[in-house]
């Protein structure tokens, strides 16, 4: 999933640069980040759905346990799933701007915005 987001984001930078070769690096990055926000939203939604599907056994834990719901929620199994979802989301959210910046530095030549 992370690979898909980063490759697509780098390809977005490349295509934006080819569409407007004289655009400054800053302009290409700004446009690519607008596309990147959509990548982040779609990927985080997919990640949440995947973790919810993988967490279905937790629903069985809630249903079959004789413990109070707060006791189950404070358990290690629930904490591990929450941390996994958070770390995965943070990684994807951080990857888009980093990939965009690196791709722009490698693909878009530095230009003096005052020079025409």
Give an overview in words.
With 116 residues, this protein is an all-alpha fold. It has one domain. The chain has 5 helices and no strands. The two termini are 41 Å apart. The mean pLDDT is 84.
Per DSSP, the total helix count is 5
Q: How many structural domains?
A: 1
Radius of gyration: 21 Å
Report the biggest beta sheet as strand number plus sense, adding barrel if it closes.
none
Which descriptors would you attach to this protein?
single chain, 116 residues, mainly alpha, 5 helices
Can you describe this structure in just a few lines?
It is built from five helices and no strands.
Topology:
Layout: H1 2-19, H2 25-54, H3 56-64, H4 69-73, H5 76-107
